[in-house]
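Below sits the subject:

***
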Amino acid sequence: MKKGTMLIAKISSAKGLNFQVEYPISNRRYALFGMRRRGWLRPWILSMLEAGPKNGAEIINEVEKASMGWWRPSPGSVYPLLEEMVQDGIVTRREDGKYEITSKGKDEMSWTHGPWRHTHRPLTVEAMLNEIESYMSYFEDVTRSDKTKISEYSERIKAIKERLTSLTEILST
């Protein structure tokens, strides 16, 4: 729920823990919040389907189990995402209602790098630019709250700025 520039997260778990967390958040971050949370669900579903076909209810239950009861995605998140994944050709829906990963879906999973292979990663230029903007928002927030956490990276940030400036100059010609 949004209230001004505060994000209010009401957290409930299957174990009966309920609490509310409020923290300031930029309007841009607030807009991206829903996309980010759902962004984690896609690779999570793909990794579950790598282990074998599952229906939507099984996926919901497995996410809840894997998050140790802290998150149970709603059917309103899971089923539209599954349909989108079918349209994208990364999963298929079998006659028994179970979803199965396709070779295109396996390719998408194999593209991930690093030890935590279930991370969200941008797949298009638009998504990459959104990711860059999100990191910029983070750096701006850190700079406002505690410059010392980022000041040691000043030279590196300047080098990135120069590369971006050079890229925009190339695109302008």
